[in-house]
């Protein structure tokens, strides 16, 4: 089993919901915000499943998709609350010329791991992440930006090519979604590697 098999169902489900929503316009109603509902609800589950899979692979006890989802469902509530708390902070930072938002993302990167592996509540996880990433913030920020750019550019390029050729349809949309699923995981893998390295260093 690969990491793609963990994330692909989420991507396809969200894409299918978006397509379904696009075929049911309601006059005088903006449904664009409704498209974010599955993303908001699925993101904690999706993110936790990736983390459990990567953690199991690192420990040579690789879990199956169902096992990852089962474990992820147990931490959905704290991760959802974490997202609700941290998202406005990050968006405010991004609105302030982007750099402050990226800085906040780097400093809060470990919060999800503290919720999952240390059982911290979201507020304590945010505080712990903010403190523990102080010395690593530039390494995290630089690495995360490079990884995100490397993963985002191929998708944007493919979308531009498909649109310019007039070939955007359900088949190409699904193919782009598959590529998006594959390339969505490296940032989380990078974050987990940074967290793991930090944990090993502090335990010495």
Would you give an account of this structure?
- With 204 residues, this protein is an all-alpha fold.
- It contains ten helices and no strands.
- The longest helix has 28 residues, at 137-164.
- The radius of gyration is 18 Å and the shape is globular.
- The model has no long low-confidence stretch (mean pLDDT 85).
What layout of secondary structure does this protein have?
Blueprint: H1 4-22, H2 36-58, H3 65-74, H4 76-95, H5 99-107, H6 111-117, H7 122-132, H8 137-164, H9 170-183, H10 186-203
Helix pairs in contact: 1-2, 1-9, 2-3, 2-4, 4-5, 4-7, 5-8, 6-7, 8-9, 8-10
What share of the residues lie within helices? over 70%
The coarse overall form would be globular
Q: How many helices does DSSP assign?
A: 10
- What is the SS-derived class? mainly alpha
Main beta sheet, described? none
Task: Name the poorly predicted regions.
Answer: none
